Amino acid sequence: MGQWIVITSALLLLFSIVFADMMRKSIVFDLKTPKVFYCPQEKPTGMEKMFVKARSLYKLCEFRGKGIPKYYKSDCYNDVDETEYACKEKRRIMMQLNPPNG
């Protein structure tokens, strides 16, 4: 009985890690459309079946990763645009658009 609990717990942990990683990768930026980023609008079941919506780039990490206020309607599924990863992505994107040497 105890072995099944350990196996089930391990599988749940693995699933949550994979899902969290998929959510992180769900923020998409394309240099062809530099003023917007794309994020999922509903829970993704796979990268090929993800429905995304274009959002203005300034909306990415708008609240500096501190979560959204209670009165604010989220731009992306599960507030993925306000995660620590989203803020790192925004910094990376901004460096790409405005390199320090350029």
Structure commentary:
The protein is of the alpha+beta class. The protein has two helices and three strands; from the N terminus they run H-E-E-E-H. The protein has one domain (2-97). It has helices at 2-24, 84-97, and strands spanning 28-29, 36-40, 52-56. A three-stranded antiparallel β-sheet has the order 1-2-3, with no helix packed on it. It is globular. Residues 1-20 form the signal peptide.
List descriptors:
single chain; 102 residues; 3-stranded antiparallel β-sheet; 2 helices; 12% strand; globular
| Shape call | globular
The secondary-structure element order is HEEEH
What is the count of distinct domains? 1
- Strand tally is 3
User: Spans of 5+ residues with little confidence (pLDDT < 50)?
Assistant: 13-19
Q: Classify the secondary structure makeup into a structural class.
A: alpha+beta
The radius of gyration is: 17 Å
Looking at how many chains there are and whether they match, the oligomeric state comes to single chain
The profile of the biggest β sheet is:
3 strands, antiparallel
Percent of residues in helices comes to: 25-40%
**Euclidean distance between termini CA atoms:** 63 Å
Task: Figure out the total of helices.
Answer: 2
Sheet-strand content, in percent, reads 5-15%
Q: Average pLDDT across residues? A: 78
Going across the biggest sheet, name each strand in turn.
1-2-3
Keywords: Signal
Signal peptide: 1-20
